[in-house]
Design a protein that fits this description.
- The protein contains two helices and ten strands.
- By secondary structure, it is mainly β.
- It has a single domain, classed as Beta Barrel (Porin).
- It has an eight-stranded antiparallel β-barrel with strand order 1-4-5-6-7-8-9-10.
- β1 and β2 form a beta hairpin.
- 23% of the residues are buried.
Amino acid sequence: MIKRLLLFLVVTFFGFQLSAQSEFKPELNIGIGAGPTFSSSSLNVMNSRTTIDTKNLTQLHAGVSVRYITEKHFGLIGELNFAQMGWEDNFDDIIVEEGKEAPEYKRTLNYLEMPLLTHIYFGSDKARFFINLGPKISFLLSEKETKNKALQDYIDKNASTNIAPLLKHYGKDVENKIDYGITAGMGFELRTKFGYFTLEGRYYFGLADIFKSQKGEDFSRSANREISARLTYYTKIF
């Protein structure tokens, strides 16, 4: 009797599983998305515990997305984006004489990026919560430094002092044009008859260094960090 009951439960369970799989239809979406980026950099001076103090630089990213939902609660997302990363130096610890300008420095890095993300979602046909996670590779298109005269005066004044190692990134071009790391995000999707709208927050942890990090170089670590928000509109292909 027990064996028959167990057999019945097993058959029933797998029957429900097969039924659910047969009812689910894969879904392909194409979308466009954009949003702000809040990026910084981890700049560690070689042979030192000193880290250059940076703060978030607010910029933007935009691009296209392809999402393929292969089964219930699971899918893949591929994107091609123009994205701005970089950082702004933090000079809050520098004493500025009254009436004089404070140093300012920004570095903008323009990338063509390609995230490939695992998409996991929960919810109904109308509203869903989701998690995206996966690698991202980026190719540097261009870069730009912005600094004021007060910073140039500060550099000239301290070029031969003990803080000279903290000035090595000024005027130094990015040496590694390819950046890669891990992206993780979560958000909300609203599905309507006009299309699907997603709002997502993401964090990017760079694994590569933008400057050379071998022994004898200026920095032991120089990685991108980014927080971003993205609003995406998807249309269903099938």
